[in-house]
């Protein structure tokens, strides 16, 4: 650099006629001490927020935090892409901060931060704006020195990707206010106070939707609140849908139907003239692009997409990868707000993130059809494995309540025609667990029916009767299944032998069908035969033998033969107490059955204590309002009444 101020600090020089090496002449006002430069009145480049709604709590928190006296205050508003972080920052900067200047910098890279600071230097000293040859580094440094020597200003650093991109700036400044927006939920310790932003409330989301519609003069608003709920009250999605409805004249309910039928197209659609880079599909793809060096992260998101949005057990991901790799990949999703760690061993994923992640798109490398299908089956397999092997154990009672919402969600998101071996296996297990927990119900039969539909379809012509029999049983039509069961059982016995487990299971089902039909003589005869074979093959105390003893005792009870049912139930209760423990569901069931048997025999003195114990156990396991608890309580009231 050649000038009469050679060897001096150009930024703070007071000399005149400063010449840069590129021949640019700095005017005198550009060379004075930076500490003496005053910001032009009302200097502000913050974007306006005409559609802003709600966020009272977040705004109040920012008011409180930024009111702290002296020093530098740094707040980092973080959340999912499209959650409204930038809108909140702009609203607070324009309507709540009273200092000067209020300057907005897109801060998604170190270079972008430097560029924004250089723009601030030009805005502080307009004379510099007409000198395009000035080195950007000099302008950036001049802006930083101005910030360090002044206070009562606000710098909004929007869309920060990496805390290290802004750390050098924050380290140098000791006064002023920084408001950061970022998708990063972590990495702010020692640098900024994090402020988590969540979705809008029902009312706020609907208000935002209607503002856009009314601005365009649209009056068809029926279904607006329901559509906003379907969009998970995500501001970007709500605004995107409202703009589409406003431009095309689409009614909210019609938009919801299109969203259900063509999710990929609707997630990517925007109104004419809208910002195609600001659709939910594009926003979240950019986030996953940032995680491309951790492919497992996208795989995890695709798996979580098939579950219910809230309360997803982290344990469902066990076995997907070695623990260190799994923890790192999940941690990165959490860091970028794509997944929320609830702190209790469960995760939350926004329902629209899920919908997008399970919707194939050949143009999105994170949502290829084969990967989405693989994730669906992995999600089903993880759920099936999560159920304890003993579906009637006390542990299963707790697992049932935790896991069934996710089974329900997966079933809703997979069409019956698209069921695979993995999903059908899960639904079959869910049906058995539901039946063990609540007894045969419409829901447990629905799960079993869906599983059988798939396996019957897969069996083709080889075992058509088995498929049809299974379908009838799953539908609760045991009587209609009897002739098919007889035919299939005969076939299985011929091909596998009477002692094969599959043949024994079919004989048991056939006996149950006879019992439902009311043919108790044939039911008892077949139950006795199965029990005899079980004892011979696996012994008196084997779980399968205990189940066969229970079936025979209940058949006698159903036939009104309490004299034969009671001794069987007494010995069964003793064995189950010893083998399974008093808290096991099968033990409690036997306890209840024995109490009922005594009641039917007129021995209320023995019935009452047994039924009292059964009611207490069922209440603890299932709750007071569960049908099985209510039945036991009714039996107890009858026994007490004598």
Description:
The protein has five domains: 33-196, Rossmann fold (3-Layer(aba) Sandwich), CATH 3.40.50; 202-278; 280-386; 477-542, no CATH class; 560-642, Serine Threonine Protein Phosphatase 5, Tetratricopeptide repeat, CATH 1.25.40.10. It is 58% helix and 6% strand. The protein has helices at 56-66, 85-95, 110-124, 136-148, 167-172, 202-215, 224-230, 235-248, 252-261, 263-268, 280-290, 295-304, 323-335, 351-357, 369-386, 394-413, 421-438, 442-459, 464-474, 478-496, 501-517, 520-538, 543-558, 562-579, 585-601, 604-622, 627-641; strands at residues 18-19, 25-26, 72-78, 102-106, 154-160, 176-182, 193-196, 312-313, 340-341, 346-348. The strands form three sheets. It has a five-stranded parallel beta sheet, sandwiched between helices. A three-stranded antiparallel beta sheet has the order 8-10-9. A two-stranded antiparallel sheet has the order 1-2. The longest helix is centred in the middle third of the chain and has 20 residues, at 394-413. Residues 1-17 and 460-464 have low confidence and may be disordered.
């Amino acid at each position: 650099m050649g000038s009469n101020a050679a060897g001096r600090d150009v930024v703070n020089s007071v000399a005149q006629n400063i010449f840069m090496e590129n021949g640019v002449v700095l005017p005198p006002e550009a060379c004075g001490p930076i500490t003496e430069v005053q910001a032009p009145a009302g200097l502000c480049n913050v974007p306006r927020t005409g559609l802003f709604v709600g966020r009272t709590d977040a705004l109040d928190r920012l008011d409180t935090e930024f009111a702290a006296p002296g020093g530098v205050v740094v707040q980092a508003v973080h959340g999912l892409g499209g959650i409204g972080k930038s809108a909140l920052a702009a609203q607070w900067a324009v309507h709540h901060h009273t200092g000067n200047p209020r300057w907005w910098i897109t801060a998604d890279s170190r270079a972008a931060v430097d560029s924004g600071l250089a723009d601030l230097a030009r805005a502080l000293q307009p004379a510099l704006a007409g000198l395009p040859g000035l080195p950007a580094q000099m302008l950036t440094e001049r802006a930083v020195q101005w910030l360090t020597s002044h206070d009562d200003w606000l710098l909004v650093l929007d869309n920060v990707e990496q805390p290290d991109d802004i750390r050098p700036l924050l380290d140098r400044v000791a006064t002023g206010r920084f408001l950061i927006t970022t998708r990063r939920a972590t990495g702010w310790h020692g640098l900024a106070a994090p402020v988590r932003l969540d979705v809008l409330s029902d009312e706020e989301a609907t208000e935002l939707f209607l503002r856009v519609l009314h601005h365009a003069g649209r009056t068809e608003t029926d279904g607006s609140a329901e559509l906003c709920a379907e969009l998970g009250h995500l501001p970007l999605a709500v605004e995107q849908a409202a703009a589409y409805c406003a431009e095309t004249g689409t009614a909210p309910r019609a938009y919801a139907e299109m969203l259900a039928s063509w999710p990929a197209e609707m997630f990517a659609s925007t109104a004419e003239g809208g910002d195609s880079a600001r659709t939910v599909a594009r926003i979240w793809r950019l986030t996953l692009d940032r995680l491309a060096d951790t492919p497992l992260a996208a795989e995890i998101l695709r798996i979580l997409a098939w579950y219910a949005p809230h309360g997803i057990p982290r344990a469902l991901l066990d076995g997907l990868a070695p623990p260190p790799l799994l923890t790192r990949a999940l941690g990165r999703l959490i860091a970028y707000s794509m997944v929320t760690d609830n702190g209790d061993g469960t995760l939350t994923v926004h329902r629209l993130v899920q919908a997008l992640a399970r919707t194939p798109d050949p143009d999105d490398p994170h949502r290829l059809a084969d990967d989405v299908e693989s994730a669906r089956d992995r999600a089903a397999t993880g759920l099936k494995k999560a159920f304890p092997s003993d579906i009637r154990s006390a542990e299963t009672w707790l697992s049932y309540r935790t896991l069934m919402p996710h089974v329900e969600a997966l079933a809703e998101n997979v069409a019956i025609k698209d069921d695979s071996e993995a999903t059908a296996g899960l639904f079959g297990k869910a049906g058995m667990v539901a039946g063990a927990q609540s007894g045969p119900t419409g829901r447990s039969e629905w799960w079993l029916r869906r599983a059988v539909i798939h396996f019957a379809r897969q069996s083709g012509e080889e075992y058509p009767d088995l498929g049809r029999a299974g379908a009838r049983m799953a539908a609760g039509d045991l009587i209609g299944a009897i002739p098919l069961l007889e035919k299939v059982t005969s076939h299985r016995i011929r091909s596998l032998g009477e002692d094969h487990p599959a043949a024994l299971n079919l004989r048991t089902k056939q006996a149950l069908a006879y019992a439902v039909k009311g043919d108790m003589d044939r039911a008892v005869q077949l139950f006795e035969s199965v029990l005899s074979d079980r004892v011979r093959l696996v012994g008196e105390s084997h779980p399968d033998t205990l189940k066969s003893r229970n079936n025979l005792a209940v058949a006698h009870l159903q036939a009104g033969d309490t004299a034969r049912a009671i001794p069987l139930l007494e010995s069964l209760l003793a064995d189950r107490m010893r083998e399974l423990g008093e808290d096991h569901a099968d033990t409690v069931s036997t306890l209840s059955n024995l109490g009922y048997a005594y009641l039917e025999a007129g021995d209320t003195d023995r019935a009452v204590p047994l039924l009292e114990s059964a009611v207490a156990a069922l209440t603890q396991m299932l709750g007071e309002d569960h049908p099985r608890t209510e039945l036991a309580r009714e039996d107890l009231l009858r026994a007490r009444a004598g």
